[in-house]
Write a structure and sequence with these properties.
The structure is a single chain. By secondary structure, this protein is α+β, with helices and mostly antiparallel strands. The protein is about 25% helix and about 35% strand. It is built from three helices and nine strands. The strands form two sheets. It has a five-stranded antiparallel β-sheet, with helices on one face. Helix 1 packs across helix 2. The longest helix is centred in the last third of the chain and has 12 residues.
Length: about 140
């Protein structure tokens, strides 16, 4: 199992990534963040270019445009997951159709949660609720 959250706190002007996985040293591959730019989590056959190139793209584009540019040129995109939050808290996520089930994501204002090889959708729903409960998130949840 792997699940992660990318999140932005507009009061603190801070971005973060949290990840948990059955895979060792996942913290070396999944989280990417840059102050003033945004945060990215790439998982499920992680593409490290999604992190390095993604942060470069976030300097010019919003989260949704960045996501489209990253996955459009990736022949293995259906095996991947990515969550992005940009400099203004706009978020985007993608879960490929070939990720191990249960796999999905939830996107809201200032955050995206994503996971694969999960027991059920309740894992992601609980993560989204907790982010909202902390007062960081105020927008309606959009499901994958």
């Amino acid at each position: 199992m792997t699940f992660s959250i990318v999140i932005y706190d507009p009061d603190e002007k801070a971005w973060g990534v949290g990840v948990a996985s059955k895979f060792l040293a996942v913290g070396a591959f999944v989280p990417w963040a840059k102050a003033g730019v945004g945060a990215i989590a790439t998982q499920s056959l992680a593409n490290l270019e999604y992190g390095t190139k993604g942060l470069e793209l976030l300097e010019k584009y919003n989260a949704e445009e960045c996501l489209k540019k990253l996955i459009s040129a990736d022949p293995l995109k259906e095996k991947r997951q990515i969550g992005i939050v940009d400099s203004k808290g706009r978020s985007a996520a993608f879960t490929g159709k070939e990720c191990y089930p249960y796999a999905s994501h939830i996107v809201g204002e200032n955050y995206a949660v994503q996971g694969n090889i999960l027991a059920s959708e309740e894992v992601l729903e609980a993560m989204a609720r907790e982010a909202e409960r902390k007062g960081i998130i105020h927008e309606k949840i959009i499901r994958a």
